[in-house]
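Quick one - first record:
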Amino acid sequence: MTAQMATLAQRSDNWAKEMAELHRRDEELSLYEYWSTEEVAHDATNKLQRYAKAAPHHWRWSDLLPCIEKSGELVSMNDSERRTLILMNPALAPTIATVTTMYAGYRINLPGEVGPCHRHSPNAVRLGLTGDTNFTVVEGEQIRFGYGDLVLTPHDCWHSHAVEEGKPAINISYLDHPLCNVLNATYFDSDLYIEENGVKVRKDLQPVTFPRDYSVNTYRRGGLRSRAVDHLRGTGRASPMYVYRWDQTREFIEEMRHRDGSPFEAIMIEYTDPLTGGPVYRTMNFEVMLLRPGERTWPVKQNASLLCTIMQGSGRSTVGGKVFEWNQFDTFCVPGQEWCEHWNPSAGEEAIMMVVTDEPALQALNLQVKEGRKPNGEIIRLD
């Protein structure tokens, strides 16, 4: 309808009656009327942009630990193959998500337990928190890991979880499962078949076909790439380096700690795919932020969402106007479009946090927007 026709319709004595009838028909057909007839600027566009938004939220380790330990007492691997407590954002309930595109979950593994082998479409990562005898077998590589070690289980890779010996071990997982759900791309598979003597046999445990420390020994030398090995290893387009060791990350942190860094991000170290230099996954990436004693970042707002787990120290973050006082192994979320700043008030102790971001997905779609606010109030683009 042209602007002239709209004007004539509005002048008609029957306009209100005809508009009511149009509303009724549109509602019956599940149609959204993308126009504004009320005296509210951009009302139709604002309604079009409505969706369930995650809220800034803080989960304290002191609250979580009793529940994690109790789950280990009450739920065995015979009861369920999975024993994870997922951080559900209260603003997204009943959707199981920590932010709109990712979730994080704490898991306890008991000595001698072995979770059956499985694979799934969501990309996942396990970060060791307590204990040093966790192990995950990923596409034939058995990886033992502990505090700070980052273990990948990329899209469609067979993997299993266990603890070899000693005390229970706790780790936190990060998955892009909510994003996969939105894209109708989620699937799980627990039926691994291995050919033996010409016959396919179902296995709960996958064979170990790579030596221990294969990932570290093959990819730890930055700038050097072997042409004598197959780098795909079933990962598709994810990083073929299945474990990033904390001791190497910590060593790099020490080398960088005296640099100026960024007033918006302090000292930030990014985990990368050793083949491309790009993100670990196309959907998620992982970074470590060092806040030196007394260091405070300038506010940042971006459309990427963040999950932040404290690896060391204590401090304070302000997210969307909410103040979170955090300690080791706490996790808090920074939903997209929320202003965020961090502060380590200690005069002598540093603070380190793991930051998980869906930034790669936004970059791939050319949608990333990132801004910073200077102390004088000026807002600048950072992306």
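second record:
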Amino acid sequence: MDYIRELGAGAVWLTPVLKNCQYEKGTFHGYGIQDFLHAEPRFALGPERSDDELRALVDAIHARGMYVIFDIVLNHTGNVFGYVRAGQDNAPDAPFQNTAYPIRWHDQQGAAFADFSQAPHPLPPDAAVWPVELRDNRFFRKQGKGADLPRAKGDFESLKQMVSEDAGLDRVLIRAYQYVIARFDCDGFRIDTFKLPDPAFGHTFCSAMREFALSIGKENFFTFGEITTGEEGLTEFIGRDTKAENNDTIGIDAALDFALEGTLNGVIKHPDPAKPSPPTLLVDMYQARKQAERTVISTHGEASGFFVTFLDNHDRHQRFYFQDPTDGHRWDNQLLLALGVLFGLQGIPSVYYGTEQGLHGIGASDANVREALWGKLPKPFDQAHPFYKAIQGMSRTRANEPALLRAAVLPSTVRQSHRLRYFFFHPWRDRLLANSRRR
């Protein structure tokens, strides 16, 4: 944590930490939640200690002057029930259909209870889904896989989609995540697949989180979402769209800037070096954003707080940085240029863990960009590494230059395999940190 702080980070964005299905040994990635109230036991020394260990981690990060952001899910749960289909009473997934399948909720071993179409009470902690109020068939679509359908009215493989437009479900999820804020003292949420749940629910959820956080003394609770859509589509989520009728709610604070990531990957790191994309593409992207956000912002600088910028992330199959096996430093300046652009442009820069040590995973799956930072390098936390020192210098420059300071309105981070993920940078953290410590 001292290593992260010295890098210049203002916040730590943790990999999802809530409890996943314990009977699925490989699913501790965090996005298949089985219990929305407790921490994942496999990250701790045991189930009875997981909540206290997570809180201790948050307290230790706060003690070093940094914020903590939790990665959360509103769209789906884990594989908490099976489908009855084609002679099976516990199929983990099913083809999409327009009507609901019969289901069987899972016991603590992941088996289907006989005639378990409605979850009974009481249940052991590893069975079905928690909190108990969430254990209601009407809160789940039960229509099989449909992540690639318009508005994704279906499951992500075995991850069961919830009916976010149901007001009863809204209340359960809002109360659960308010408890998470209070129990673990986090300072913000990164919300997975934020464009898939009902947009009205998304607005209500973010407003409820801000209001609850404010009621316990957190004046700067920050929400940002994974929203993979065009510039015009972002106006449905970010800020208040003044064009919309009868829309008085404020949306999510910010979105991950996929448009910038894609543009920089073309301009700075083009797949064909002989035919690089011109820098004017970057200008065109910002012109399109200016036009799209014209009814949402009052000044162009205000957009700086609406976007969390990045070069690569945990869902990609390769990192931005490429290390030539025949010439290890051939492409170093390519990464340094991209980082310089990231720290110089509007938005809240986020650096994926390991970038500062030159991790360069590449392959056929996202596992290739989730390398362990420790154990694979001669000096895994080398503060003399050229990339570490470059990022450290960029973060200091950004904090000290008024023209750049306006672009860093809110926290930024590290994410690592299973614990920490991203570094965020925030020059005002000392002045604002007191708000995150107040209960």
